[in-house]
Amino acid sequence: MLNRVGFLMRTRDRSTNKLFYSIGEVCELLGLEAHVLRYWESEFRLLKPSKNRSGKRAYKEKDIRILRLIKYLVYDEGYTIEGADRKLKKMLRPKTSGSQTEISFDPPSSIDVLREISQELVDIRALLDYPPAEEEKRPKTPATTPADQ
């Protein structure tokens, strides 16, 4: 079920070294609306983005990782908000050292992720009801007409 958690928890784009992201940037990264993020902030105690001097939300990478996990639990796994909150608390064992929370997870191997993606593509193809690949490659035989005989 949660073999993709490690994949979901990766956040940082290697080309940027940003410390904080605006709510608009996070919405774009996750494909969510801003009101959803604000609602989740009120429902999940682990999710507390800081605010800058002008009062705008400033999300750290830790916040984005938690949001990705919440999105996965709610949208992909079908958890309710309350169920996702309980699952999230079980999955993320807070180990406080100062003000930082350490998130522990076992990332899946690249092979496992590729196999899962491959299986999903096979399932999508079956849903679309495409003909099997062998039928697509068969040469078409010309039809014979009575004049040919």
Walkthrough of the structure:
The protein is mainly α and 149 residues long. It contains seven helices and two strands; from the N terminus they run αααββαααα. It has a two-stranded antiparallel ribbon with strand order 1-2. Strand 1 (50-51) and strand 2 form a beta hairpin. Helix 4 (61-76) packs across helix 5 (81-91). It is elongated and about 85 Å long. The chain starts with a helix and ends in a 12-residue tail after the last helix. The relative contact order is 0.14.
Topology overview:
Blueprint: H1 5-9, H2 23-30, H3 34-43, E1 50-51, E2 57-58, H4 61-76, H5 81-91, H6 110-128, H7 133-137
Antiparallel strand pairs: 1-2
User: What is the overall number of helices?
Assistant: 7
Instruction: Provide mean pLDDT, rounded.
Output: 76
Structural class: mainly alpha
Lateral arrangement of strands in the main beta sheet: 1-2
What gap, in angstroms, lies between the N and C termini?
62 Å
| Unreliable sequence segments | 11-15
Percent in helix:
40-55%
The H-and-E topology, N to C, reads as: HHHEEHHHH
State the name of the first-level CATH class: Mainly Alpha
**Cα Rg:** 23 Å
* Oligomer class: single chain
Q: How many structurally independent domains? A: 1
Briefly note the CATH topology name: Multidrug-efflux Transporter Regulator, Chain: A, Domain 2
Keywords:
149 residues, mainly alpha, Multidrug-efflux Transporter Regulator, Chain: A, Domain 2, two-stranded antiparallel ribbon, 7 helices, 2 strands, elongated
In short:
With 149 residues, the chain is mostly helical. Helices cover 50% and strands 3% of the residues.
